Amino acid sequence: MSPDAYLSLASILFAIGAAGVLLRRNAIIAFMSIELMLNAANLAFVTAARAWGNLDGQVVAFFVMVVAAAEVVVGLAIIMTIFRSRQSTSVDETSLLRW
Amino acid sequence: MTTTLLLLVLLAPALGAAVLLLGGRRTNAWGPLAAIGVMGAATAGALALFGAMLTRPAAERPVGVLLYEWLAVGDLRVPFGLYLDQLSMSFVLLITIVGTLIHVYSLGYMAHDPDRRLFFGYLNLFVAAMLLLVLADNYLLLYVGWEGVGLASYLLIGFYRRRASAATAAKKAFLINRVGDFGLSVAIMVMFTMIGAVTFSAVDAGIVAMPGWVPLVLGLLLLLAAAGKSAQFPLQAWLFDAMEGPTPVSALIHAATMVTAGVYLIVRSAAIYDLSETARTAVIVVGGISILFGAIVGSARDDIKKALAGSTMSQIGYMVLAAGLGPIGYVFAIFHLLTHGFFKANLFLGAGSVMHGMNDEVNMRRYGGLAWVMRLTFITFLIGYLAIIGVPPFAGFYSKDSIIEAALAHSWTAGIVAWLGAGLTAMYMTRMVMMTFLTKRRWQPDAHPHESPPVMIIPMALLALGSAVLGYLLVMNDAFEHWLEPVTGFVHEDPPLAMPIVYGITFGVVGLGVLIGVLANLHPAAEAPTRVNPLVRAARADLYGDAINEGLFMRPGQVLTAATVITDRRIVDGAVMAVADLSTGAGDQLRRVENGFVRSYSLALVAGAVIVLAALLLLRIA
Amino acid sequence: MAASLPTAIPWTVLIVLVPLIGAVAVTFLRAPAQQRAARWTAFGASLLALLLAVILAIGFTPAGPGVQYLVSSPWLPALGVSLSFGVTGISLVMVLLTTVLAATVIAAEWRMPVPRGTTQGYLALLLSLEALVLGVFLARDLFVFYVLFEAMLLPVYFLIGRFGGSRRGFAAVKFLVYSLVGGLAMLAALIGLFVESKAAFGRPTFDMTALADMTMSTPTERLIWWGFFLAFAIKAPLVPLHTWLPDAAAESTPGTATMLIGVLDKVGVFGMLVILLPLLPNASVFYAPMVVVLALIGILYGAVLAIGQGDMKRLFAYTSVSHFGFIVLGVFVFTGIAMNGAIFYMVAHGLSTAGLFLVAGYLMSQRGSASISAYGGVSQRAPLLAGLFLVMALSTLALPGLAGFIGEFLVLLGAFQRSVVVGVIATTGIVLAAIYMLWLVQRVMVGPLQPGVDRVREVTVWQAAAVGPLVALLLLLGFFPQTVLSLVEPAAQTTLAGVPAGTAATPSLFGLTGGEQP
User: Helix, strand, or coil here: B481?
Assistant: First the structure.
């Protein structure tokens, strides 16, 4: 099989995710976009594993999934707290942590 | 035995000072008496040493005592050693005897001062330091005593510490002395570097083999030191201000003993001056200028103590001049120093007695007619007066006349300066006696002059006795010349005129001075006349000594200090702070990147990733 | 003075540990009610350290080997670092000075109110500072020296930053950053030495004794010299790297200022003596003229600045800049007399400056101001206080009979032996010293009573007893300087023997370049 199609799909997914993070203000959407990027990376890993014929890529994909799951737990909790205190999930409004 | 006595003489006043200064108010009651007691012990010790010395033949009279090794670093070996020869013996006697008398006098003079224990403590400290100065067997130890007396002088000038002027005067005295000390310090360095030792004996022995510039340089440096301590031109300005101190201090420190330390230093370094004609000439010039300078100032001041201070400067000028004459003069310098110690202390104590009776008034224009109110003071003062203007057979006649003869033998200039000084001395001293004791009363309304108590009169009387007979005693059979000759050497030279002519001129000059003094002061005004000739105006301003110091050193110094402070803050520290500001400023600018918007951070991330990717791709293609 | 101590006890380590343990113990006595116990513990620890220092001095053989009571154990063998402590004549004197001053400071500030934080914290910081400084003086391993050299900044940072005056934060940061810059230069030099020693011996070493035998190429040696010199010149401090000192001193408590100027600054000169000269002798000789000129500038510049100050603590700081000029001059003219003088000077300066700061501290704590113009006529109210102050001032201006004179005279004499011009210029400093000290005494202690000064009280018996020993020591060292000089001289000779500067038997007018002497 040719990995080109899979890699192209992974690139497109990554680009969509990146655009989502950069363009959308809603924290939930931004979060989902990040997940999209992570999964794009996963797809690339799995494709590579298949192409090279070893399991390293798949192992890494599992790692990424675990990390993503952990991240979702923490991230959603933060977003929840912010929403509770501000009644909003816009990432542009939470800009207190600057100079 | 000698060691014990020497230690007694040296340590008794030191112990007294320690007890009085550390003892606090507890010593108020008995402190002054204890101070006199230790002075008595020191005097007794000095007399015992003197007696023992007289019994020995001239060659065996000097004794040296090594107490311990004071400093031993590398090649530098400085003993803590004492050396008592005829020269230091003369000083020890002068210091202890005059010192004791002035201590006793102070008992009366300072009776009402709440801080008198401190006063006596400082006096004892002074005596201890002065004895160390003259007993040291090397220049470095002499330096300890040298600055020790400076410290005591500083403390005593500033004794009336409520007065701002006293504090300023004390500091001024110390500072000008420090300029002189600079000379002594460098002289000691030259000695050690060139000769390899700082003891008197080693320097005297080693200086002979040195190249010619060494004695010259040493002579000039030591002259600087002597000028500072002895208030000689050009370092004289402090002495007039030093009169801020209590009068017994002026008598002991600023007339009889400490200010003559410069003469001691020069005579002690005779071996150095013997080798340099130029250095000796410099000494003569300084002494000669000081004779006239002091006399002119003394003639114009209305403050009795400052007039006496001018006189002191002038009389020490005689000693310095004599010391500069070399072997023909050393002996006479010390001779005059001893007689001056007595008659000037006598005069100062007399002035103190007058002040004591006149509510501490020092302006002679407010005196007048005191001879009939303070008879004893007048009589003792009169004896001092006769001694200082050189009337035979009083002490000053013998010593001053010897100096005039020696100066004439050296050069006409020196001789004429000495004559001129003698005439001026007669003039200003007559003026002082006229304005204070004779003429009509110009007292302030609240003045009730009275004779001083016996505790003050008796020391004055004893000093007057010394002023009267000491000269004759010492000159009998040339006793003093023989006494001091083994130490300083002595060469007799006849003046270019026959002796009767010399005497005649001297008496003529002195008589003329007395005459002018009497005639000009028959009716002194109660207020100083303001329309006076420029010379008087200059003399009242101490010949502008202070103005010159201010214009030449103080003002530029202040400007320099202010400029340096600004330089340090603006430029040196400014550079440091500029570096600090630069880094914090750069940080300030950079932190604006951290705007807190998550999406701009992500954009930075993405942009970074894109750049890395692009770079990789470019490399791949290349 | 030659009774040998049992070597089973690691004396040199013990003396560092005692104040450290004291510091830890004090932090455990945290409750306000335990303040008294904490003071006594701290005082006891500092006294014990002093006692150990005296024992060490008795057990020290001046004529014996250079480093005595050496205790050493490997620390980082891969880097050639070992924890080794030993005592030389020079470090012994510095240890004595440090322990004396630490005990004096703790005793003198017995009742000092601490504006912020706790007394316990203050004492713990003082004791840990003492321990670290003692460690620096006793370290015989360059790496340990460096670590302690940097570590001792921390207690000072907190002492200034927490217990200081109104601009304490600024002063503390300025001090810390300034010192860290020097430390960074020193670290670079340290790495350079590491590389060089690896090349020379086949394995790296930081042992000072071993490094002294190492030879390097001239450019390398000079480069490494700069690293160390920068660190020591900042610490000493040498003009123009001195501007942190006035700020730090002005914002410190008197006790901190005493430790800072009396002890901490001495580490800079100590480093010059035990690192620059023995380890990098050729570069030291090469740069000596520059250092001497800087020292001369420092003497005069510091003195003139001191004259112009209106704040007592800043004035003391600038006098120290002037005095460190003398000390550095004494080290870098390379004559035995001057070097002995410089070491003696450090002791005398430590004692008299401590006295000045502490006595002035008594005054300032009552009046609440360090400004000179706020005072006048103090001696009428507090004659004993004024007397103590005067003695310290007189030693500072090098009055013969007090310790300051011996140090200053020896330095000047040694400098004069090397170069007439240098000696004479430096000697003018004695006139300037009289100006700044006596003018200060005049403005603060005597003259008419200023408003506000009439409430000033005399020093208490306890306060006088705390400072009294300093007066006694100044007098003792002024009349019996051999007590210290006999300890120092062999070590100074050894240090000097390694410097190829030639002898100064014949003085020259300018003769700064020691290497060209016959």
Answer: helix
User: Is there a domain that residue B617 lies in?
Assistant: yes
Answer whether B158 sits within 8 Å of C177, measured CB to CB.
no
Smallest CA-to-CA distance from C106 within C125, C90, C88 is with: C125
pLDDT value at position C459?
86
For residue B150, tell me if it sits in a domain.
no
> For an interface test with B, which of A7, A14, A16, A22 has the most B Cβ atoms less than 10 Å from its Cβ?
A22
pTM: 0.89
Distance CA B181, CA B203 (A): 19
Chains with at least 3 CB pairs less than 8 angstroms from chain C: B
Cβ contacts of C450 on chain B, cutoff 8 Å: none
Q: Of the candidates B591, B595, B606, which has its C-beta nearest A18's C-beta?
A: B606
Residue B155 amino acid letter: L
CB pairs under 8 A between B and C: 142
Contact A64, A45 (CB under 8 A): yes
Assigned CATH for A4-86 = 1.10.287.3510
- 3 state SS of C342: helix
B chain contacts of residue C239, beta-carbon cutoff 8 Å: 572
Cross-chain residue pair C413–B179, CB shorter than 8 Å: no
Tell me if A91 and B606 make a contact (CB, 8 A cut-off). Answer: no
**B564: containing domain:** 550-621
Across C211-235, average pLDDT: 91
The answer to the question of residue B316 being in a domain is: no
CB-based contact (8 Å) between A21 and chain B?
yes
Mean pLDDT (whole number) for B439-451: 84
CB contact under 8 A, B592 and A30: no
Q: Which of B11, B20, B73, B567 has the highest number of chain C CBs within 10 A, making it the mutation to test binding with C?
A: B73
Tokens of B377: 């003071």
Contact across the interface for B599 and A22, Cβ inside 8 Å:
yes
Strands C81-87 and B76-84: unpaired
**pLDDT beyond 60 at C345:** yes
Q: Is the pLDDT of residue B218 over 60?
A: yes
Cα separation, B161 vs C427, whole angstroms: 31
* Residue of chain A nearest B603, judged by CA positions: A22
Residue in chain A lying closest to B589 (CA) = A99
> Residue range B285-291: average pLDDT?
94
Q: Which residue has the tokens 């006649």?
A: B397
pLDDT reported for residue C321: 93
Q: Which amino acid is at C49?
A: A
- Strand residues in C229-326 grouped as ranges (E): none
pLDDT tens figures, B69-105: 999 888 889 999 999 998 999 999 999 999 999 999 9
What span, in angstroms and rounded, lies between the C-alpha atoms of B276 and B346? 37
Q: Are the CB atoms for B197 and B208 separated by under 8 Å?
A: no
Distance CA B230, CA B262 (A): 5
Say yes or no: C308 contacts chain B, CB-CB below 8 A. Answer: yes
Residue C415 CA to residue C508 CA, distance in Å, equals: 11
Exposure letters B396-405 (e unless 16+ CB within 10 A, then b): bbbbbbbbbb
Hey, where are the domains in chain A? Answer: 4-86
- At C495 the pLDDT is 86
Report, as an integer, the average pLDDT of A83-99. Answer: 78
Residues of C in contact with B182 (CB under 8 A): 427-428, 430-431
B182: nearest CB among C417, C430, C485: C430
- Whether chain C has a CB inside 8 Å of the CB on B584: the answer is no
Number of domains in chain B: 1
pLDDT at A91: 80
Task: Please write the tens of the pLDDT for every residue from C82-137.
Answer: 999 999 999 999 999 999 999 999 999 888 777 777 888 899 999 999 999 999 99
- What pLDDT, in 10s, does the model give residues B29-40? 888 899 999 999
Quickly state the pLDDT bin for A90 (edges 50, 70, 90).
Answer: confident
